Amino acid sequence: MAVTSICMKSILEGIACGAICAERKGAHYIFKVEEKERLKKLNNEYVGCWRMVSDIFVENSVFSIRYKKCKEDFYEFMEANSWFKIKKLDSSEVFFAETKGEDLFLLKSDVEKIKERLILWFSSYKKGNEEKQYLLMKMLKSMYPTTARLILLFLKKQPDTSNTLMWKLLDYLCASLPCELTEISEKMLSELIADMDRVLPLNVAGLFEKFLYFIRKNRAMPNGWTYHFNSRSQKDLMMHIRQWIFKNGIYHF
Questions:
Q1: Is 29 in a helix, a strand, or coil?
Q2: Nearest CA to 138 among 164, 116, 156, 115?
Q3: The domain boundary residue, chosen from 108, 124, 140
Q4: 126 within 8 A of 191, measured Cβ to Cβ
Q5: 40: closest CA among 3, 81, 65, 91?
């Protein structure tokens, strides 16, 4: 079909299973205009997963869909992040596009929302811990500059901080932080901590505790920044943090 570039075999299969509506006249099938428009709309709304990956080309990345291990690592990354809650369709459910070489189809609008996250992952794929930290800090700075600046101040005071732990914390914050830490409410902080309890390993969560202690201790910053966790005392806050710090979590980059 010209409007979707579906091969004849796929069209016939779609008609046979009732996914595509067409009237047979002799050796030909007649499609109503409405049906053609429906198929065209769906075709424009979805993109094959590997086509999407190919479209998001990252220069100097060692990632390539030609290699099975790369594709497995990408799926592992997406699964670990629950596919960022985007809608996906198994290729067996797709009747409006050519599915050869594709396992899944994704909504293009959803892909656009996570595009920067994907570019970051492709850019840091197989890179060293220090470079991952640099790339993630750059992303956090573009999202929440005040929080990024505070982390940089923390790192100046704690120069021996592990690059591995820091990039994992930064990766989590880029994906999950709802706003600047200076503006976070007690409810949002509690939700963030509960999620950290579920997904972060003990040592990464411990680093976040140290960072929170640092910004709590330095409540009056040179630029006038004021600590906003004032609805909970430092003692109560740290007691709450320690309750989840001493539990195990699992995290995947």
A1: strand
A2: 116
A3: 124
A4: no
A5: 3
Q: What is the pLDDT along the chain (253 residues), one digit of tens a residue?
A: 555 566 666 665 666 566 666 667 776 766 767 777 877 888 889 999 999 999 987 877 899 999 999 999 999 999 988 898 899 999 888 887 888 899 999 999 999 999 988 999 999 999 999 999 999 999 999 999 999 999 999 999 999 999 999 999 999 999 889 999 888 888 888 888 888 888 888 889 889 988 988 887 776 333 443 333 333 344 444 445 544 444 433 333 3
Q: In this structure, are 109 and 142 located in the same domain?
A: no
Q: How many CA atoms lie within 13 A of 232 on its CB side?
A: 18
Domain assignment present for 27: yes
CB 128 within 8 Å of CB 94: no
Within a domain: residue 2?
A: no
* Cα–Cα distance for residue pair 159/176, rounded to 1 Å: 25
Say if CB 193 and CB 241 are below 8 A apart: yes
Asked if residue 203 belongs to a domain, the reply is yes
Looking at 77, 109, 124, the residue that finishes a domain is: 124
Whether the CB-CB separation of 3 and 43 falls below 8 Å is answered with: yes
Handedness of CA 187, 192, 197, 198 (dihedral sign): positive
Task: Tell me the residue range of the domain where 20 lies.
Answer: 8-124
In sequence order, what are the residues at sequence separation of 6 or more whose Cβ sits closer than 8 angstroms to the Cβ of residue 133?
Answer: 163, 166, 167, 170
Query: Could you give the number of structural domains in the chain?
Result: 2
